[in-house]
Amino acid sequence: MEQKSAFETFELNLPPVILGYLKETSSWTYFLSILGFVGIGLMILGGIFFSLFMGLMPGGNPYEGLGVDMSYFGFIYIVIALVYFFPVLYLFNFSRKMKSALSSNNNDTLTAAFSNLKSHYKFVGIFAIAIISLYVLVFVSALIGGIM
Predict the structure, then answer these.
(1) Per-domain residue ranges for the chain?
(2) What is the pTM of this model?
(3) How far apart are CA 82 and CA 94, in angstroms?
(4) Which of 57, 77, 91, 112 has its CA 20 to 30 A from that of 49?
């Protein structure tokens, strides 16, 4: 008879209060991820609309003198939507796997759920650092441009 180690037979041994918190968290993250996907879809549709129809509006392009086509603004919306897709996907995968882990007491699924949550926050953190760096760069450029 083969004896299993304590690690192979380990089950989720969390207090009921924590399990309740995780279940509620997974429900809210599922809701927020669905809202995120809807927002991404609307951003893509808005970007397509902006790219196709803003050049046809009466009054023309107010940025024509700068050599900027209005379709670029729609393209920017689509790029932002694609960047936003990844953290929303990580959040969706977290909620789905957390619900599965809680219903089946599966440690591997629980680990995968927290891995997705870690990836979500890592992506958001790196993106925040990039945006703050861009703000600093624009601010310093504006200061230098104002001095000269």
Answers:
(1) 16-147
(2) 0.80
(3) 19
(4) 91
